[in-house]
């Protein structure tokens, strides 16, 4: 969209994120994320609604995708090209693997630190519960639109590119732009002047990076340039919103939990602030490297992150609410067990060619197994070590009582919580 290469685009994004992450703090980032979500959801819904209306005559994507004939048509096109039906269940993954991926995504969401920290910006528990309900509503709007948009994108791409003269296709403005980035490749391998999409990657003459499907969809559907620009802004807003939240968690965790609590307990607030900002810079640089040299396509990397969150944070969060006997030793042992197992499995499969030996579960779904390991280890170690103090157990019990506010942390004391 900006006619710059991937490396330059990543660097521009790094500078923008660094600007409002370092200068903004918790309050600044929270309000920027509100604005970014507004841009994101509008940018996501408008093209989905427009394309649904064009293809099905129904302007609600969820209903157009479900109740029109677009899916039977797409399935038939897939079969004609030699692919499996678009909606065929478990075509590429086993039922067990799909189940484990689903669980990892669900519980991983509950354990994402940059999501949890958002609840610290509200005044009380009631407001946190209220905001969680609204969050689920807005998440549902986005996620129920995604399958419809993906189906529409697949249908439009095939109809626009398959079996068309290569020179004619290259005259399309969006094809020319994306081909220059290297994320779309067209090759007339058989020399017949036409390009074909086939299941065999070695013979297929069309190669599309999966990360550009949503961004290219409005252009493929020949929507207004205004909508195309809006989608670009929405994609940028989504990236910046997520990045800023993660950077906030990284900086606060390192500066407070590691530097202040372990390395230098006498550190002043300004020293902790400086450490946090340095860690933000380091994290941005590391993220920039992986942005230029991605370990996988976006959806896959996101699944890895959710799996790691499920294996490390979720069991401890759940037990911290529902099990008074869980203590620090159990939580640490459980988190390390789940995290180490899941990390080794993901790295082994992704980078070292290890086969998915655990009943064929993929790297994207192994977080569910890590979560169960974490849960078991936490329960066992907590029972084998001294119980938390009585006032901590009372605090945990008060968390489950909706009739009154739980004990304030100031009343308990930070040292006692440890």
UniProtKB/TrEMBL annotation:
This entry carries the following GO cellular component terms, namely: plasma membrane
Query: Cross-referenced PROSITE patterns, in alphabetical order?
Result: NA_SOLUT_SYMP_3
Query: Sorted alphabetically, which keywords does the UniProt record give?
Result: Membrane, Transmembrane, Transmembrane helix, Transport
GO terms for MF:
transmembrane transporter activity
Q: Which family does it belong to?
A: Belongs to the sodium:solute symporter (SSF) (TC 2.A.21) family.
Mind telling me which NCBIfam families this protein's record contains?
A: Na_symport_lg
Q: What name has this protein been given in UniProt?
A: Cation acetate symporter
| Native organism | Romeriopsis navalis LEGE 11480
Q: What is the lineage of its organism?
A: Bacteria, Bacillati, Cyanobacteriota, Cyanophyceae, Leptolyngbyales
């Amino acid at each position: 969209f900006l006619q710059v290469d991937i490396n330059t685009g990543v660097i521009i994004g790094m500078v923008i994120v660094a600007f409002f992450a370092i200068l903004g703090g918790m309050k600044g980032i929270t309000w920027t994320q509100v604005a970014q979500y507004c841009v994101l959801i509008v940018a996501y819904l408008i093209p989905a609604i427009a394309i649904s209306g064009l293809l099905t005559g129904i302007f609600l994507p969820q209903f157009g995708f479900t109740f029109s004939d677009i899916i039977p048509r797409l399935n038939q096109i897939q079969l004609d090209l030699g692919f499996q039906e678009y909606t065929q269940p478990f075509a590429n993954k086993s039922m067990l693997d799909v189940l484990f991926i689903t669980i990892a995504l669900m519980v991983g969401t509950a354990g994402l630190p940059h999501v949890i920290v958002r609840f610290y910006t509200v005044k009380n528990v009631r407001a946190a519960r209220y905001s969680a309900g609204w969050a689920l509503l807005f998440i549902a709007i986005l996620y129920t639109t995604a399958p419809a948009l993906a189906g529409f994108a697949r249908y439009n791409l095939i109809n626009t590119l398959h079996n068309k003269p290569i020179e004619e296709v290259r005259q399309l403005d969006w094809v020319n732009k994306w081909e220059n980035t290297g994320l779309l490749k067209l090759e007339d391998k058989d020399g017949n002047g036409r390009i074909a999409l086939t299941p065999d990657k070695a013979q297929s003459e069309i190669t599309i990076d999966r990360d550009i499907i949503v961004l290219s969809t409005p252009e493929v559907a020949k929507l207004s340039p205004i909508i195309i620009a809006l989608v670009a802004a929405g994609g940028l807003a989504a990236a910046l919103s997520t990045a800023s939240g993660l950077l906030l968690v990284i900086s606060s965790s390192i500066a407070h939990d590691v530097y202040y609590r372990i390395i230098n307990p006498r550190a002043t607030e300004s020293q902790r602030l400086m450490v946090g900002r340095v860690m933000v810079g380091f994290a941005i640089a590391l993220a920039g490297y992986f942005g230029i040299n991605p370990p996988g396509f976006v959806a896959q990397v996101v699944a890895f992150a959710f799996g790691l969150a499920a294996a490390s944070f979720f069991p401890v969060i759940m037990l911290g609410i529902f099990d008074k006997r869980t203590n620090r030793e159990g939580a640490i042992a459980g988190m390390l067990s789940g995290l180490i197992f899941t990390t080794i499995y993901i790295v082994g499969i992704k980078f070292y060619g290890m086969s998915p030996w655990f009943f064929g579960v993929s790297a994207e779904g192994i977080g569910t197994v890590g979560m169960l390991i974490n849960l078991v280890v936490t329960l066992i170690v907590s029972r084998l070590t001294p119980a938390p103090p009585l006032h901590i157990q009372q605090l945990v019990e008060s968390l489950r009582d909706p009739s009154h506010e739980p004990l304030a942390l100031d009343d308990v004391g930070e040292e006692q919580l440890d």
